What we know:
2 helices; 29% strand
Amino acid sequence: MKTLLFKTNINCGGCIKAVTPTLNQEAGAGNWQVDTANPDKILTVTSDKLTPEQVVQAVENAGFKIQAA
């Protein structure tokens, strides 16, 4: 499994709720998390099959900003 890290603007429970269906579909439930306590709002995705580009596209499609950490 590889771990991908991204800076996002997912900063609250409501934001996490909004992006959850998209990330669950792409990465699978339990394979991602957002550290909203971190100033950079770090999204961690653990996956063998996803590329960083796929994660960026999924998060942007959900309406959030994202960049590689």
